[in-house]
Write a structure and sequence with these properties.
With 246 residues, the chain is of the alpha+beta class. It has one domain. It has six helices and 13 strands. It has a five-stranded mixed beta barrel. A three-stranded mixed sheet has the order 1-11-10, with no helix packed on it. Strand 3 and strand 4 form a beta hairpin. Helix 5 packs across helix 6. The N terminus is likely disordered.
Length: 246
Amino acid sequence: MKKLILFLLFPVCFHAQNPDFNSVEYGKLYTGYIQHDGRLQNQMINLVNKEATSNDLETKGSPYLNDRFWKATLMDSDENIGDVFVKYHAVAGQFVFKFTQLEEEEPKGLIKMKNVWLKTEKYGNIRIHSLIDKNGNYQEEYLFPLYEGSAVNLFYIPRKDFRVGRESHNSMVTDVPNIYTENFQHYVKLEEDDSASYFKVNNKSFKHLFDRSLYKKIRNYLKEEDLSLKKDEDLEILFEEIDTLL
């Protein structure tokens, strides 16, 4: 792995004056961390969802969590591979990354493996986790941490959906544009669970997840601290309290 790290980091310095980031030779150096599924690569890098090409309507929003690349540390298990610049494709649930901020370097899809994860200041440690989605299906997806404790963890997926617009058929009605909409999903993982489970943030979900005594304490704490289940910062405070009660 030490040899791989040197190969990964050295070309950034070596090609700094006249880089050819799209060359086959250069790309081979990052093979271990590049997603080579061409179909998925196109979905991530082409910014527009394929439905948008079926009409000439304006498209509002972006499939990415952030339009700009942001700095992260690429980790392989416990090894620090180096700093990269990433964007999260919130429709595909994938990351694209670059080793520099130079425009001529093409983004590459980050391989989706549990041992490969990102350490960030903005979003914490982003890892692949096993989860059960809202339809009861088992998946492995990137989960963004909201609260990580000893007995309970709260995560979220910053999902986005693409909605196809509608073209008007007369001058009295305006076009409805294509749009990317946020559809963030929360997941809870208890210490004894192997997987995180979809958690719709409402009173009913808390009542279903915890026993009657703990649920009553949660309800009282929400009222006493005047917390809102619609605010992530309040959810973090609430789950920190729940962690002490479990």
